[in-house]
Amino acid sequence: MNNTQATSGRSSGSSSHPRPRTVTRSVARPVTRAEALELRDLLEANLAALQALHEEHRRMLAHSLQTVEHASALRRELRAIGGPHAPWVHALAETRALLFVALRELIVGPHEAELSMHLPQEEHAHKQ
Q1: Where are the domains of the chain?
Q2: In the predicted model, is pLDDT for residue 9 greater than 60?
Q3: Could you give the CA distance from residue 55 to residue 63 in angstroms, rounded to a whole number?
Q4: DSSP for residue 121
Q5: Across 35-95, where does the E strand assignment appear?
Q6: 25 in helix, strand or coil?
C-alpha cells in the first residue's frame, strides 16, 4: 500500500503565507489482512506522533506563558523600584536631610544666632 504525499507549489520560506498544505491521494480500502495491519500501524504511528507533537506544543506554550509572566512581574518590580515613591527614594531624602542638619550643626554649631546678627566691625578700620 503506497500513500505518497505531494506538496503544493508554494515555497515554505514565505512568512506571509501559511505552510504549504499536504495533499494526499485517496487509498483503496485494504483487502488483505496484511494491508489492514499495515494501515493500522501507519495510523497508530501517526497518532503517536501527533500526541507527542501536541505535548511538545503544550510544554512550549506553558514555558512561554511562564516566561511572559516572569517578564511582566520583573517589569512591575523595576517600575516600582524606579518610581519616585520607592522606599529607597524616601530613605535617600531622609538621609540627605539628616546629613544637612548634621553638617550645619558641625559647621555652624551653637553660634547660629550670632551669624544672623551683624558682626561688629573693628574700630581701627573706622579710625583710619
Answers
A1: 30-82, 85-113
A2: no
A3: 12
A4: P
A5: none
A6: coil
Write the CB contacts of 5 (distance below 8 Å, at least 6 apart in sequence). 22, 23, 24
Beta-carbon contacts of 6 under 8 Å, excluding residues fewer than 6 positions away, are: 22, 23
Q: How far apart are CA 51 and CA 57, in angstroms?
A: 10
Q: Residue 106's pLDDT is what?
A: 80
- What local confidence, expressed as pLDDT, does residue 59 receive? 95
Q: Measured on CA atoms in the order 5, 10, 12, 17, is the torsion positive or negative?
A: negative
Q: In which residue are the cell numbers 573693628 written? A: 122
Q: 11: pLDDT confidence band, cut at 50, 70 and 90?
A: very low
10 pLDDT above the threshold of 50: no
pLDDT the model gives residue 83: 87
C-alpha gyration radius of the chain = 41
Residue 92 CB: number of other CB atoms within 10 A? 11
Total number of residues shown for the chain: 128
pTM over 0.70: no
- Comparing C-alpha atoms, which of 39, 50, 37 is closest to residue 3? 39
Give buried/exposed letters for 25-41 (b at 16+ CB in 10 A, else e): eeeeeeeeeeeeeeeee
